[in-house]
Each structure stands twice: as C-alpha cells, then as structure tokens.
Amino acid sequence: MNRHLKIAAFGFALGLAFTAGTASANEEMLMKKAHEGSAAAASGPVKVDKATGPDAYTVGELYAKGAVLDKKKVAVRGKVVKVSIGIMDRNWIHLRDGSGDQANGTHDVVATSQDSPAVGDVVTALGTLSKDKDFGSGYRYAVILEDASIRK
C-alpha cells in the first residue's frame, strides 16, 4: 500500500473512531483541543479592582473560600485572558484580577457562560461557584463559576 493510501486509511479509521464514540467522548476531545496552550491578553501583571456588593470576591478569595462559597452565587471582576467558544454548549472564560498565586494556580478562575467577551475586556462575572468540579479527561477545577452572566 502506498504512503498516501495508508494516510487516507488511517484518517478514515480515525474518523470512524470518533463517530463511533459517544457524544461525551467527542466533547472531551473538543475540550482538550480548546484548552491547549495558554493565551494571555498581556504579558505584564494584571491589576483589576474588586467587584462591589455583598457577593463580590477577588479571584484569590474564591480559591481561599471555595468550601464556604460552594453552590453560592458570587461575583468576580477580572480581565479576560482567554476565551474558548462553544465547548460543551458553553463558553469558557478565564479571568484574572491580580490576586491569588500563580505558582499555586490560584490566580486564574474560569467562568462558563453563554456570553462571549473579548480577550482583554475587564468584566464582572456573576455565577454559581462550584468547588472541585470534575469534567473528566483531566479537566478538574478547584473552583469554577458556572452559568455566569458577564457584564462590562
């Protein structure tokens, strides 16, 4: 079999493997693809003022108080540093405000939403905090805001 036919056969078999799998497997593949790499709006430090109101927290506070805030509505204001559109029927928005600890991974929080802000926007996300959320395939979040509304 020549090289081109082998490549075509492999591509066909690979396509069959994906179509024969469950929607969950396809969603996991899409999620992995969307979360590859790390895109940041700016290479310098981020400094964003905290949101206002009784349910307002910094990114660092969400991690520190995750157990207490689990399943509660919270607001966080931050700079959008990455957006992954349409993964598992939602958009995945990474926010940073300058709080938290990069070495410990507590400086960036993900909010899922139907809204799609642009990288570089400073927004307030209002959503339900979930602690220790596991989507499978190694995508586990110590804290995540789910079903968030995003406003500038």
Word description of this protein:
By secondary structure, this protein is of the alpha/beta class. It folds into 2 domains: about 5-35, no CATH class; about 55-150, Beta Barrel (OB fold (Dihydrolipoamide Acetyltransferase, E2P)), CATH 2.40.50. The chain is about 25% helix and about 35% strand. It contains 4 helices and 6 strands. It has a 5-stranded mixed beta barrel. A hairpin with a 5-residue loop joins strand 5 and strand 6. The longest helix has 18 residues, at about 5-20. The model is unreliable at about 1-25 and about 35-40 (pLDDT under 50).
Q: What structural class do helix, strand and pairing data support?
A: alpha/beta
Across the major sheet, the strand order is 2-3-4-6-5
CATH topology of the largest domain: OB fold (Dihydrolipoamide Acetyltransferase, E2P)
CATH architecture assignment of the largest domain = Beta Barrel
Largest sheet: 5 strands, mixed, barrel
Topology:
Elements (H helix, E strand, L loop, with lengths): L2 H18 L2 H12 L21 E2 L1 H6 L1 H4 L3 E15 L2 E7 L12 E5 L8 E13 L5 E12 L1
Entry keywords:
152 residues; alpha/beta; OB fold (Dihydrolipoamide Acetyltransferase, E2P); 2 domains; 4 helices; 26% helix; disordered N terminus
